[in-house]
Amino acid sequence: MPSRWHINDRPQSLTAFLRRFPDDAACASYLHEKRWPDGFVCPACGACKGWELSSKRWTWECGECGRQTSVTAGTVMHRSKVSLRTWFLAAHIMATHSNGMSALQMQAHLGLGSYKTAWLLLHKLRRAMVNPERDLLVGDVEVDETTLPYRTKRDPVGGGQGRSTIGKMVVVGAVELLEGNAPGRIRLETVPDYSGSTLKGFIRDVVEPRSEIWTDGNESYAGMTGYSHHPRVIGNMAAHILMPWIHRVFSNLKRWAMGTYHGLRKKHIASYLDEFVFRWNRRRWRQVAFDKLLGLSVRIPPMGYRELVEG
Ligand SMILES: [Zn+2]
């Protein structure tokens, strides 16, 4: 099957995206190209001879052993009733839209028949946002806590009503500082309290030992071992001046939580934080984000993250 698209020229704008993927066949071509950049290879026997079945959509049959392989196998789209193009569009929006989207917005945007379909679509895409092989943050890292309002009841599907905020949860965050005063990767977690063991435990979980930890004067961080700790207490100077990047992260997080979701639901807070972190950490790396959301195997170029985010 001739590929219509090259892997590395996926455009960024929605208009260009829609032009590039006008139908399911174009999406299937993309999947085919990602899976078999040098042409069909049977995953069972390794034979390179095969043909696309006319009776089964997007499926190839091996000329040697007869094994049938769908271009969607192993991806989030496999055996889904939702069209490839809808998946692609949803992943594109999730990867590129700086604020992400609620299920309600996604339903309207994609013209989906039901809220439930939109919700399931987002839920499945979000699963790809949890990276079990997370590298630890290194170097200079700002750490701070904030509170985030949460909802316990879902707003009516119609939206707008019943957004009573009845509680706040504590979120602790860390951001790497890159050379040239730029923020690198982030980590966010909800924690039960502000205690020293909780906050220092978070740092141990997400930051490489011997890194430089920058915090405010909060006593809970005192006595941290294994790191160089720099508590910054300069009179009454505002926290956002002392630690500008973690405060930038927190204010973006809050704007996103309130703007997109009208407050996060406590039950789903972990996956929402994952979504925010995923998008932030790949904000200069949308192609990888798009492929990863769809469940395609992603080859990260052999260069450090710092070069990626600075590049
Ligand atoms: Zn075979």
Descriptors for this entry?
6-stranded mixed β-sheet, 311 residues, 3-stranded antiparallel β-sheet, disordered C terminus, 11 helices, binds zinc ion, alpha/beta, Nucleotidyltransferase, domain 5
Gist?
Helix content is 37%, strand content 17%. It has eleven helices and nine strands. Strands 4, 5, 6, 7, 8 and 9 form a six-stranded mixed beta sheet that branches.
Structural write-up:
The structure is a single chain. This protein has 311 residues and is α/β, with parallel strands linked by helices. The chain has a domain of 128 residues: Nucleotidyltransferase, domain 5, CATH 3.30.420. The strands form 2 sheets. Strands 4, 5, 6, 7, 8 and 9 form a 6-stranded mixed sheet that branches. It has a 3-stranded antiparallel sheet with strand order 1-2-3, with no helix packed on it. β2 and β3 form a beta hairpin. α3 crosses α10. Bound molecules: zinc ion.
